[in-house]
Amino acid sequence: MITACSNQKTKASKTTTVKETSTSSVNPSKNIDTLMYAMGIQLFQKKEVAPNFELKNINGKTVSLKYYRGKFILLNFMATWCMWCRKEMPHLQKLHERFKDKDFVIIAVFSDRDRAKAIAFIKKSGYTFTENSGTYNSALLDPTGRVTGMYRVTGTPTTYLIDKNGNAFAIAQGYRDWSTKEAFTLIENLINLNKPIK
Question: For residue 4, what pLDDT is reported?
Answer without folding.
Answer: 62
